[in-house]
Automatic annotation (TrEMBL):
Protein name: Pseudouridine-5'-phosphate glycosidase
Positions contributing to Mn(2+) binding: 123
Family to which the UniProt record says this protein belongs: Belongs to the pseudouridine-5'-phosphate glycosidase family.
Organism listed in the record: Rhodothermus profundi
Family matches, as SUPFAM superfamilies: Indigoidine synthase A-like
GO CC, any one term: cytoplasm
Keywords per UniProt: Glycosidase, Hydrolase, Lyase, Manganese, Metal-binding
Enzyme Commission code: 4.2.1.70
Length: 289
């Protein structure tokens, strides 16, 4: 029985500081294997799509300078020019589905960015487009806390993406156990998730089943702790007139600076936990096939 789990690689090259990035990548792959599934970290090396990386390739991705962050629009550029790239949720999901891998694990998904200078937010992550188009199972800890969570939840609904709360009734927000926003349905077991996924397939619905898992209790950060630090980070970003691609890494870095090691611990723990949940779902799906 083959039960592959796709893992994104942007978190290795861009999301976590060294040496935690490599250690976390190894831990996530080990966690998937321990559950009887097959980890498949996806990246592009010298223009070649890699569906699963050797240990030395993981190390290269974690340590080499100039690794490009690759979303959907970037895929043909990186492949055609023979570059190295770490794939985002959207790009990972696209490549995984093309390779016949229906289950993916990540940390937090992208969504609708918060408004800056009172202007409507025009920056909407390609993750939402990929989720609306590709009928896979994506395990995450909800949208990143830096986003406009209400607008992101509305976009998920508008695009027909079923949001599952895995052992929770509210959608988590990355480091935080809850966003205060509801999910569409609660599932407490991998079998329940697979039943929902099969129902979507029988109905011919496009788009993903988004399984949201709160971070482990031992490391989860309350919203009342994160939000003041986030507001200050947003003010800093406005002062620097940051937009688009520069905004997300800046805000996440600012949160790490203001909240210290708690943010890093939460990020690492939720990535490993999501890999475990995804592996269990992948095994249940393979058994049900």
């Amino acid at each position: 029985m083959d039960a592959p789990v796709a893992l994104e690689s942007t978190v290795i090259a861009h999301g976590l500081p060294a040496p935690h990035n490599l250690d976390t990548a190894r831990r996530c792959e080990a966690a998937v294997r321990a559950e009887g599934a097959r980890p498949c970290t996806i990246a592009i090396l010298k223009g070649q799509v890699r569906l699963g990386l050797h240990p030395d390739e993981l190390r290269y991705l974690a340590t080499a300078p100039g690794i490009r962050k690759v979303s959907l629009r970037d895929l043909p550029v990186v492949v055609a020019r023979g570059l190295d790239g770490a794939t985002t949720v959207a790009a990972t999901l696209h490549l995984a589905w093309r390779a016949g891998i229906p289950v993916m694990a990540t940390g937090g998904i992208g969504g609708v960015h918060r408004r800056i200078d009172g202007q409507p937010a025009m920056d909407i992550s390609a993750d939402l487009e990929a989720l609306a188009r590709i009928p896979a199972i994506v395990v995450c800890s909800g949208p990143k806390i830096i986003l406009d969570l209400e607008a992101t939840r509305e976009q998920l609904e508008t695009r027909g993406i079923t949001v599952v709360g895995y052992r929770t009734d509210t959608m988590p927000a990355f480091y935080c156990p809850t966003s205060g926003l509801p999910v569409d349905v609660r599932c407490d077991t991998p079998a329940e998730v697979v039943a929902l996924y099969r129902a979507r397939q029988r109905l011919g619905l496009p788009g993903a089943l988004l399984v949201t898992v709160p971070p482990p209790d031992r490391v989860a950060l309350p919203r009342e702790v994160v939000l003041p630090a986030l507001e200050q980070a947003l003010q800093d970003a406005e002062t620097r007139q940051l937009r688009a691609e520069a905004l997300t890494p800046f805000l996440l870095a600012r949160l790490r600076e203001r909240l210290g090691s708690r943010v890093l611990q939460a990020n690492i723990a939720l990535l490993e936990q999501n890999a475990i949940v995804a592996a269990r779902i992948a095994r249940a799906l393979a058994t049900a096939t």
